[in-house]
Amino acid sequence: MPTRNASIFAALAPICVGGALSAATVSDLDDAAKEHKVQLVVPEFPTIPEGITKRIDAVIAKYKETGDKVAKQDPAKATFQSTIGIFDDVDNWASHQLRPVGIVENTSLDKKLRGVATDEYQRFQEFAIGFSYREDIFQAVKAYADTEPKLEGEEKRLFDDTMRDYRRRGFTLPKEARAEVEAMQKEITKLGTEFDKNIRETDTLEKFTKADLKGLPDEFLATVKTGDDEYSFSGKLSAHFIKILDLAEKEETRRRMVAARSRHAMEPNLPILEKVVRLRSQLANRLGFANWADFKTETRMAGSEKTVRLFLTDLARGLQPKFDEEIEALRQLKAKDTGNSDAVIKGWDTFYYKNKLLKERFAIDLEALRVFFPYEATLNGMFKVYEHTFGIKIAQVKNPAPWAPGVTLHSVADAASGKPLGLFYLDMFPRPGKYTHFAQFGIIPCKRLESGLQQRPTVALICNFPKPIGDKPSLLSFDNVETLFHEFGHCMHSILTDVEFQAFSGTSVPRDFVEAPSQVLEYWIRDKQVLDMFAADYRDPSKKLPQEVLDNMEKADLAMIALHYRGQIGYAMTDLLLHSYAHPLQVRDVASVGNEALATYIFARPKGTAFVAGFGHLMGYDAGYYGYAWSDVIAADMASIFENANGKFLNKELGMRLRNEVFSRGDTRDVSLSVEKFLGRPRSMDSFLVKLGIKK
Ligand SMILES: [Zn+2]
């Protein structure tokens, strides 16, 4: 999900195969659009390489021209619009040009076109970085800021954000110090690229004999056989790591695999990490922050290093009793398994015994659940659920120019007033060369146009659900259904937005919050009432998903949940500690910082290892790992309001409150305020701990 600052750089895209083709077209919505003073946008997608190059040229030229105009204006006549608003207009215009290029990059059937899209997009990004450092533009904006304008609402917020971002780039420092800041930033970026490359391109092979690998299936062993009785496992491949951790019966094998993985990229990356951590501390100091984590969190919901630290320690404490119980349950299994009543659980034992425990206690056949979720019925069912929750109407419209066969277009309108709210594409099944994950891509943001009309968003979901084979329907797994509800949640967050400036549109919220609205919606499919609206055995639709299956799944999910979150806290604390140095001279052995954090919150890694060297999040998502647990806690808090209400997740009044207080607001106000307005009370960690079965 792009953050606001990255919004004009972010890539995009969509897809799907939909139900019966409706005869409606987007222009059939013209009357309603006119009546409600909105504008829907069907983007134009480039189809030839020259088309992409021309667009990038045009966008760069437009930014240059606008920048010159802003810089050359008479400072005495500068206004909000002539210094700040003007860039929101250009960013919006650029979205129409650039974001379709992002879609092409991720979805085009034409390999050459995808390649050109990637290269040209990069050309734009390089330009954009230089552009954001233009001194003459800053001086013009500053001249306006110095008049201390009295602004309100979104204008005030956009003004404050703009000035804040200049300050964060070092613009308020003396010239020499700013040059230093720029140089440090470039050096950090360069080192970060090297760090990531070392993770990708180095490997640590650990060799085992067949006897070492007892418990692993022969078919898998055949794929890693490298000699007579020699099997090589890669330290960087999660699939190799998980196989051994889940299944290898010998403890020493599991320990060796954890050690190999925790040594990944250690030699080249430890010195790089140390340098980066020092530079970040120094840079934070130069910019007037106590430490790097304070600098990074300033623009996020958490707001400060201290808030994050308190959050993590509170959560660790809250989880403690359940964590202790879980470890004891695993320990008993190990004691039974090894015949040693004093057995102790180590870091390399948890997956193995957890796997055993789940199999023994909850024999859930996830494959058997697929019959309840044929793709088409599930998609239409989900539409029904979201229509009910948010008071909207979803309809398929003719896709005038699908970028691949089966890509559909749909409109969303407010059910009560008929006001068109936006458009979304569905591109739902895999094909060669396509983006391989599941994501929502914004294309057109919400914005008040010069004409007075409000431009409504257009987005795309690009996913990879199992394809139908022959006349057999595509049957989704429960995980797939959860992903569908989640990704469509991002789509709703984009489309339900109601803002003046594109900078605040939909998912342009702080990064530690952006997942929460989608995570809330994952709770819907844990509710039998909601599932009964669409989930039925496709061979006999009178058969619904039994409540006891849902209960059992929930129990299985929660059985080792504290272990999961304590692991998350270990990583998040490592990330936070490495970015909390008040002075670069305080930076000490970075390997030990990580090893000690894991030992404190979860389990120690084998001696002589340094997992931080292979911890990719430290570059690019630095001081941000806490965000996963952070947004889970907020989502649970919001979901609890539904759980405790009449009609639970189908409570319409609450659905509208969620739409009006959270989804429609985008980043026009602090997201903490939006969440609390929905909750009707301050945020709390309690709902999350209740959800986990810890608090009553
Ligand atoms: Zn997401």
Description:
It contains 25 helices and eleven strands. With 696 residues, the protein is α+β, with helices and mostly antiparallel strands. Among the domains are: 62 residues; 160 residues, Neurolysin, domain 3. A hairpin with a 5-residue loop joins strand 9 and strand 10. It is globular. The N terminus is likely disordered. Bound molecules: zinc ion. Zinc ion (ZN) binds next to helix 16.
Q: Do you know the CATH architecture of the domain at 267-274 and 285-370 and 562-627?
A: Orthogonal Bundle
Radius of gyration: 26 Å
Main sheet record? 5 strands, mixed
The SS-based structural class is alpha+beta
How many strand units?
11
Q: What distance lies between the first and last C-alpha atoms, to the nearest angstrom? A: 35 Å
CATH topology category name of the domain at 267-274 and 285-370 and 562-627 = Neurolysin, domain 3
The coarse overall form would be: globular
Please identify the top-level CATH class of the domain at 267-274 and 285-370 and 562-627: Mainly Alpha
- The CATH H-level homologous superfamily of the domain at 267-274 and 285-370 and 562-627: Neurolysin, domain 3
Strand content: 5-15%
Number of helices: 25
Spatial sequence of strands, sheet with the most strands = 5-6-7-11-8
Average pLDDT over all residues: 94
What helical percentage do the residues reach?
40-55%
* Small molecules bound: zinc ion
Low-confidence stretches: 1-21
